[in-house]
């Protein structure tokens, strides 16, 4: 996978960005693209992505590399050579989008709760 070719400098920079995001309460997500290039099973049928040991290993490697939970690594296949839309590719992309939106929603909810707690603390001081 392309993860093998990331330089130490790139990995270090990405880890710094991840740390900054976490410090701000933003959950880190990794979109693992080009999964069809690392696995013939997925190249032939994208719907088999969750049956692929190779993709699973790539997800684990990305999670380990960036020190994030596995469910924060979202495998997707880019449209590249396809001349028509494919349901299996769309489902994978929409699943990743849905998970991203769930993380964003959780982040915004947490921010609202923090703001509310801060306001309550300030009101008690008055």
TrEMBL record:
PANTHER family: INTERFERON-INDUCED PROTEIN 44, VWFA DOMAIN-CONTAINING PROTEIN-RELATED
Name of this protein: Interferon-induced protein 44-like protein
């Amino acid at each position: 996978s392309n993860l093998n070719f990331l330089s130490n400098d790139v990995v270090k920079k990405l880890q710094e960005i991840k740390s900054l995001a976490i410090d701000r309460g933003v959950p880190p997500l990794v979109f693992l693209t080009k999964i069809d290039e690392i696995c013939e099973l997925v190249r032939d049928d994208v719907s088999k992505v969750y049956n692929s040991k190779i993709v699973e290993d790539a997800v684990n490697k990305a999670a380990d590399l960036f020190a994030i939970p596995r469910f924060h690594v979202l495998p997707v296949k880019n449209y590249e050579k396809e001349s028509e839309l494919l349901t299996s590719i769309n489902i994978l992309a929409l699943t990743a989008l849905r998970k991203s939106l769930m993380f964003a929603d959780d982040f915004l909810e947490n921010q609202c709760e923090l703001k509310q707690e801060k306001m309550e603390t300030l009101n008690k001081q008055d």
